[in-house]
Amino acid sequence: MATPHGRSCAPLVLVACSGGADSMALASALAFEAPRLGVRAGGITVDHGLQPGSDQRAAEVVQRMRELGLHPAESVAVTVGREGGPEAAARDARYAALDAAAERLGARAVLLGHTRDDQAETVLLGLARGSGIRSLSGMAAVSGAGGRYRRPFLQLDRQTARKACMVQSLPVWDDPHNTDPSYTRSRLRHEGLPALEKALGKGVVEALARTAQLSRDDADALDAWASRAEAGVRDADGGLECAGLHALPPAVRRRVLRRAAIEAGAPAGSLFARHIEEVDRLITGWRGQGAINLPGKVVVRRQGGRLVIRQG
User: Fold this and answer.
1) Are residues 149 and 291 in the same domain?
2) Out of 14, 74, 300, 308, which could bridge 292 as a Cys pair, Cβ 3.0 to 4.6 Å?
3) Is residue 142 part of a domain?
C-alpha cells in the first residue's frame, strides 16, 4: 500500500551502521527481515569527523547499506565536543544525530548493534564508577523517547556477528579507536576482560550480561516503589516530609531524593551518588547542616521537618 505521494505507508525502521562487524551484521539482518515484518528498512551512518578520511568511509558505508537494499541510506556529519571526555562527547553527538534523523525521516525505531560483549563492558564500567545498581543494569533492549532505540543483538556475542559478515562476504571496517589504549572501553576490551577470563575462567561475559538483566529487574522494581513512596511524602507545598523519608528503606529514599532533584532541574547525567549521599545526610544525620548545592543550580535545604529542593 502506498501514500498519495508514492511512498509506502509501512513503518520505517533505521539501523545505525558504523561499518563495523556488529552493525553491518545487523544491517544485513534488517534488510532480510524487513519484508517479512512488513516494515521499510533504512540506515544511517554517523561521521564523527575524528579521523582523516572519515567522510569517505561514511560514503562507503552508505553504499554498502544501499547494496543491501536499505532505503533511505544516509550519512550524517557531526561535530564532537569535549564535555565529559572524548568517548562521552562522541556518544552524545551520535545520539543527537540519530534522534534528529529519526524525527526527520519519521522512523518508528532505530536499531543499534550492541552485543553481549558490549553489555559486559558496560556493566564493568558501571561497577568501577560505584554509582549503584542502575549502572550495573547496563544497556536496555529498548530505550530512548518512546522506545525509539532497540538492541536486538544484546544476547548475541561479538564473534557471532563477525562470522555472519564473513559468511555473507560483507566488508567490515574496524575502527582504530576500538584498539586505542587511550580510550577506557578499549583498554577494558583488550586488557581488562581477557585478564578476568584468565583469572576466573570462561563465561565472564555471559555472567556479566546476566548480572545486567538481574540488576535491571531489581532497579525497575525499586524505581516503581520510589515513585509510589514519593507521592506519600510530598506535602501540600511541594516539599518532602523528613519523617516519612526517614522511614523508607535507604535504596528507596535515595531514589526519591534523586527524582526530586531532577524534577527541580538537576541534570540527571551530572547527578552522582555522592550528591545524593550528601542530601541523604540531611535526613539521616541531621545536625543543623547548611544547604546542599547540586548541579543545575539546585539547592536543597532542611527547614524544620521538611526538605525543600528548588533552583535558587
Assistant:
1) no
2) 300
3) yes
Confidence of residue 1 (pLDDT cuts 50, 70, 90): very low
Residues 126-174: pLDDT tens digits? 888 776 788 889 999 999 989 999 999 999 999 999 999 999 999 998 8
CATH code, 44: 3.40.50.620
Angle at 211 between CA 209 and CA 215, to 5 degrees: 125
- Domain around 250: 234-311
Q: Annotated binding residues, as ranges?
A: 18-23
Contact call for residues 290 and 299 (beta carbons, < 8 A): no
Annotated binding residues for ATP, written as ranges, equal 18-23
C-alpha dihedral, 126 to 128 to 133 to 137, nearest 10°: 30
Q: Is the dihedral of CA 300, 289, 251, 114 positive or negative?
A: positive
Domain count across the chain: 2
Same domain, 195 and 290: no
Does 41 share its domain with 155?
yes
Give residues with Cβ within 8 angstroms of 168, minimum separation 6. Answer: 28
Under the banding of pLDDT at 50, 70 and 90, the label for residue 4 is very low
pLDDT at position 8 = 59
For the chain, give the percent of residues with pLDDT over 90. Answer: 76
Asked if residue 2 has pLDDT above 50, the reply is: no
**What is the number of other CB atoms lying within 10 angstroms of the CB of residue 229?**
20
* Per-residue pLDDT at 105 exceeds 90: yes
Q: Where are the alpha helices (DSSP H) in 38-153?
A: 54-68, 86-105, 116-129, 133-136
Residue bearing cell 546476566 = 210
